[in-house]
Amino acid sequence: MKTDEEPIMPHSNGVKQRLLFTVGIMVLCVAVSCTAQHITFNYARFRGATEPDTMYACERDDGIPCQGSARAPETNWFVNYHSSSKAEVGSLEACADVYLTGDGSLGPLQGVGGLGSLASIGGRAGIVDTLTIHGGTGAGVLTLYFSVSGTVGGSGGTNPLGRPHFQYVPVIAGQSRFDLSTDFFFAGFEQPAAVTIPFTFDVPLSFAVNFYGLAQIIDWVPGAAAHADVRAVVTRIAVAVNGQIVPDFSVDAASGNTYSATGISPTGIPPGLRPPTDHPPAICVGGWPATCLHTWGAVAEANTGRPLHMQNGWATTGILSNGHRDWSELAAATVAYPSDSDVSVPAACVFFEGFPSLATRVQVVDLGPMSCVPGTVTQSMYASSEFGRLRAYAGLGARNVEGTLALTSYGAAYAYESIQIQTDSPSRVFPGAQSVVGLTNDRVVRFTFRVDGHTGATADEADAAAGFFMRYSGGPCPSPGCAHPFRPWVSSSAGRLVQFDVEYDHRYPLSLGVQFVAAASATAFERDSQTSYSASVAANFSSTAELVGIQAFEGTIDDLGSEITDFRVLSASGTQYNASGAVLEARIGIRPKVVSVSGAEKLAVDVLEGDGFDPSDVDPESLTLGVIGTERSLIGCDAIGSHRQAEPKPGRAKKSKRLSCRFKRELTGLTADSPVAVLQGRLLDGRPFQATATLGVRSKPRSGLLAKRQR
Fold first, then answer.
1. CA 153 – CA 671 distance, rounded (Å)
2. pLDDT given at position 702
């Protein structure tokens, strides 16, 4: 019976040696959830996985890398290791590094089995799905073609080895049957890797395809090291019967993803459209907890998402030195034409680079992709990033192109924010200690984004696709430098609501980074070289991807538990958030400025005009005021009036609008420990807004004449 070890393969010195296939399990069957689409496993191990004296220095199946140094058993050698992996729709990444320190004074690693001297570091990323394939009868063969990129190597001794590896594993009755698996050895980066899977037409097939990055050492000598940092993308799928290609096959996938001749696409995305695989770093200089806004665009390979040329917008913390809000914006374009072409490209075709005015930005978005002289491909991109609001646009135009076309245009916006969720505890400032009172530290925050936009495409002898991608990274951030990996992409070809559930520990700030990408792609494969084709495709999501809801739950991702209905959101950027998401910011003035805990004072609140905010647009009946902001403490409001607003020049003032309202102090929940008053409301058109002000709160009420005068 076959185990989870690789078959015999040749060494560089011609001696055949069994090398461990680093699945990292001790049984022949592993349970797989029927809803799983992607799996990862990272580990560092001594000796063979199925040998009686095997030992793991690290093993993680939760997406967290393995990293550290471990002493090899009964030796003076130290194995320094790192392994990580990531699995997304049609894209698998794995990384493994190992190097030795110490010495051989106590001899090499030894064991009772044939692989007793092995140190194996590995990252594994896998696709798990159930497919029903149509288009023929009887038995057939499904072939997944992978484009593999990255670096591998080793040094020291004769047997250090870094390499990628593929494996097909049947899933039967919910169990991964490694005893029935098939291994596919990597032949080199120059040609696609092919994984073949037998199937029967119209019969469901459950399977896993695993991709490994392996770094292994057998010779224990000074300087021994190995590494593999590799990525595999499904770029083509073929179905054959008796060696004959079935051109018009179709696939029903339990995951909901699209399997076609051009690869695997996420749910709701047309075949051939892929998310980007790389992005420029966002360098934001600021304090902790951090904030960051960034924009960028790119032209990329359509079949892999690998950028060929990038345009980088500026990165900003979102807060200017004067305290005003900042944002990041990019509008740019590129043109590509054959390297051997002597065509003189008109200046108008290149568009522009840099940061345009609003009028120019609107012009680019409205014009869409543009084609210039025959044989050229043009790309336009736009992105804007604010806290709670992300915008992106991508266009691609091709005119009479000959040969092969496989390009994608991206416009991308990124925002990173730090927040705290508060319920009934005192207000804190960043960086914050405990801010939510509860039985446990477990919480989940659900962020809901509304994405508005549309796509459009025309193509002649080419395939065109457009849509958007979103993903997030987030979690508790107890100290500077905390980092969370990005979660898988969410995607669509039309506007929709996108929700992210993020775990956090209420004792610490919650970090959240959101990336929003518009993508437009045009492809033409395996066509006659004399055939030319044209395409015009655009993904216009420049309306906005806007944060429209925040919910808090007293539970975990798997079991959300009860919802926390009244809470306040503090942000490191100063942006106003509440249950309605990112809301308009208003200014208020409150009288008296000092109140008592047990007093019965009425609070007079003026909603002030400023920065485009008009108090006459406020719906007075929507107003609530308190320490959370949802307290129903309103008594009533007066008609819109005016007040004197100080000008920078002494002695001068101007009149501005104000809405004056009265609230019951005792219903607000304001205390000496919670002196920040939060006003929430809506405009007559339904848009939410919020404002805050800090009061002085006494523990005892005033008495006698002072109290009478105050009343």
1. 64
2. 54
